[in-house]
Amino acid sequence: MDNPTKAKRGPKHKVTPNPNAHLICMAVDDGLPFIDDAVMAGLYIAVGDSGGKLNVRPRHLRKVICLDTISTVEVLPRFLNNQAEPICDRTARYLVAAARIALGGIERHLNRHPLLKARLQALWDKQQRIDGVWDSTVDCSSLAGWEWQEQYAA
């Protein structure tokens, strides 16, 4: 017999795993520029704008790309609109689509800059050994310098 609670029609929910979520969160907290580039690219490619105004908020997308799994089910309860109500399903779909594009850009950047990825991972591991939880107050000020050094070293 079929499960009566399972939807039978419509598109299946897409779930995107994000194995680099911890690295992305560290890079977001440190304000590394490649994150902003990926976020804006995801917004303009997947969502677009209306009259020069973005249809979703970049700060929401920065939070979405830090999730371990990205789907509309995960996104819907996390954000509020301008009237302090939960965002609509369409906005959640926009955020998820933009996040998938942003993740692609971030993964390409991390693959092109393995020293930056290793540095982010080393800082994450160090923080996990200290107290088991990521704390944005840890001194990560050298990350931007690492990215620059890696980019122009050769």
Separation, N- and C-terminal Cα atoms: 63 Å
Largest beta-sheet details: 2 strands, antiparallel
Q: Classify the secondary structure makeup into a structural class.
A: mainly alpha
Q: Order of strands in the sheet with the most strands? A: 1-4
Question: Can you walk me through this structure?
Answer:
This protein has 154 residues and is mainly alpha-helical. The chain has helices spanning 21-30, 33-47, 58-64, 72-75, 89-112, 114-131, 142-152; strands at 16-17, 49-50, 53-54, 69-70. Helices cover 58% and strands 5% of the residues. The strands form two sheets. It has a two-stranded antiparallel ribbon with strand order 1-4. Helix 1 (21-30) crosses helix 6 (114-131), helix 2 packs across helix 5 (89-112) and helix 3 (58-64) packs across helix 5 (89-112). It is globular and about 45 Å long. The model is unreliable at 136-142 (pLDDT under 50).
Can you describe this structure in just a few lines?
The protein is mainly alpha-helical. The chain has helices at 21-30, 33-47, 58-64, 72-75, 89-112, 114-131, 142-152; strands at residues 16-17, 49-50, 53-54, 69-70.
